[in-house]
Amino acid sequence: DTAVSQTPKYLVTQMGNDKSIKCEQNLGHDTMYWYKQDSKKFLKIMFSYNNKELIINETVPNRFSPKSPDKAHLNLHINSLELGDSAVYFCASSPRISDTQYFGPGTRLTVL
Amino acid sequence: AQSVTQLGSHVSVSEGALVLLRCNYSSSVPPYLFWYVQYPNQGLQLLLKYTTGATLVKGINGFEAEFKKSETSFHLTKPSAHMSDAAEYFCAVSPAVGGSARQLTFGSGTQLTVLP
Fold first, then answer.
1. Which of A110, A74, A77 is nearest to A92 (CA)?
2. What is the pLDDT of residues B77-97, one digit of tens each?
3. Tell me, what's the pLDDT at B52?
4. Pick from B96, B87, B82: which is nearest to B47 by CA?
5. Residue B45 in contact with residue A106, Cβ under 8 Å?
6. Chain A interface test: which of B104, B106, B111 (most A C-beta within 10 Å)
7. How far apart are CA B93 and CA B33, in angstroms?
8. How far apart are CA B19 and CA B67, in angstroms?
9. A-chain residues within 8 Å CB-CB of B90?
10. I need a labelling partner for A70 at 20 to 30 A (CA). Which of A5, B5, B36, B79 fits?
């Protein structure tokens, strides 16, 4: 009965590879988000989708591409992984924009 | 534009002592304010939030926070710390108006250690 789930929980990969992180919410929310948490625990929003439409697209490399096949899913695809991409990536959802956000457990990405 | 400053990246208290985690914000429009807690290797969990109305907000696990507009602050308190309160705490702000531009901005976090 997990509200916001992410897979995988851990991801270890080599530089230059392409990887995807999946996020699903079963809360019926309209809005979903991706955040990056760096090694100093700083959280920064990357993207936000509302009803499958991209509404927030912060300054992130275009190697990062979100995809929302439906309201319940927001996946993050990363091309040509770099060392600096190592971080914990959190997915979140909210009923509407600026409502309380509910976070997934995070995906720890390590790029070697 | 909005920003959040959390004073003290690390706070240590003894079990049973008062917990005070400081948060100051800057926002050009009326804000919504949040405190989230992150336990080790877990996602963020909402502790409490202020949107409108009463400025003293009570949350889960005995925490509360008071919105002070004149001081642009939203400090988090708990009268008596418990060992299970040890975690990372994040203050966050979201503008109350602004359409699709409304997004959550987080502070840098405060690691709370509770000493036996």
1. A74
2. 999 999 999 999 999 998 776
3. 84
4. B87
5. no
6. B104
7. 5
8. 17
9. 43
10. B36
Classify residue A18 by its DSSP letter.
-
- CB contacts < 8 A, A to B, total 55
A42 and B102 within 8 Å at the Cβ level: the answer is: no
Q: What is the pLDDT of residue A112?
A: 96
Q: What residues in B contact A41, CB-CB < 8 Å? A: 38, 88, 108-109, 111
Per-residue confidence at B30, pLDDT binned at 50, 70, 90? confident
The string of pLDDT tens digits covering residues A36-78 is 999 888 898 998 888 888 887 777 889 999 999 999 999 999 9
pLDDT recorded at residue A1: 60
Chain B residues with at least one Cβ partner in A under 8 Å: 32, 34, 36, 38, 41-46, 49, 88, 90, 94-96, 98-106, 108-109, 111
Among A9, A24, A43, pick the best mutation site for testing chain B contact (most B Cβ within 10 A).
Answer: A43
A60: tokens are 């992130």
